[in-house]
Structure prediction request, 426 residues.
Amino acid sequence: MLYNKNKIALVDCNSFYVSCERLFNPSIIKKPVIVLSSNDGCVISRSTEAKILGIKMGEPYFKVKKIIKKNDVKVFSSNYSLYGDISRRVMKTLKQFSPQMEIYSIDEAFLNLSSIRDENLFEHGNKIRKTVLKWTGIPTSIGIATTKTLSKAANHIAKKEQSGIVNLINTKQIDQILKEIEINEVWGVGRQLTKFYIKNGIHTAYQLKNMHNNWIKKNTNVLGSRTAMELKGIPCVSLKEHQEKRKNCCVSRSFGRKVTKLEELSESVTTHCLNAAEKIRSDNQTTKRITVFIRTSPFQKDKNYYANSKDIDLPVRTNDSIELVKQALIALQYIYRKGYKYQKAGIIFSGLNEVDIYKKNLFSSINNEEKRKKLMKAIDYTNIKYGRHALSIAQAGLRKKLNIKRQHSSKIDTACFDFLPTIKIA
Prediction:
């Protein structure tokens, strides 16, 4: 048999954030490296060497400081503008290997390789890895199978293989591989479902595959049934070539230091609101509801915990930054309480939909909607060209950058002129 209907490859960048940092700092190759989340909170990326030391994913930074100091682990603050740019280069490179591709995350993509002969799949996967490494400098692992869930499983094993590729097409080793994958590592099996499966004696992907489908349907849901069917090699989840637009948009961040004043919270909420508005405009969407939320740290010693949120239903759908900020600040004033040390603030836009799905309302001309649209377009164009927040509004303040903790930043940004290296001529 030369061809299979379904041949899905999952290409996953190895320790992506770490690999991006190593790309511009070769001295840390083969050394333990970690990348921290916003405000240097938790570990979100680890090199293989760091994993061997026992540093866990999601571990708070302060808990692993002893391991870091003892083993000279290199630490970097997250640099999302860099990671986003490198990701775009990787995805553009992958696109040439398949007309059908689904970008699953910043460092993962599914490719349809159904046009490739079975006996050429491994060679083709090797060509993909070499090309991505040569053109972008990012190492990858590839899992190839008849379903997306199986390709995920194959990729999980491929990360441990020297070749970096595992091909499950027409192989008798599928069951053996699934026996090596713990149930919590199966794509589509979350924390609560993992607990349920373990309670019922299902500890591996192989055991889930061999459970009767009626039992799974009865005790879980449709998604659980699809996962089990895909492990059996029956395709239930198709490739999504065109990404679905978001239904909600959330922008939030923990503060680098505790915040007590309404003025500082207002600046943070305004900045988050501007970022969210920019995102939904880029998707050609508008919002109908705003949710503003604030909270203190649940781990503070005095146990003086406070968290609250406020929803505002907008009379007219909009993506106008000025109007959205105005409503968000009204919501913030409603929930703000003096005497608390706030750790986090955020904003959620919900009920998102296409700009053109609704016709103009009676107040469009009164509110100068056409002029405001042109203003928003000018702001977005300026910020794309000169960098985010190059053009902002006064309520965002001038101190917002001072409240972001990035003590280990590599200060590399391939999309910003300010970070280009300078050469001094004597």
In short: Residues 172-244 form a domain with the DNA polymerase; domain 1 fold (CATH 1.10.150.20).
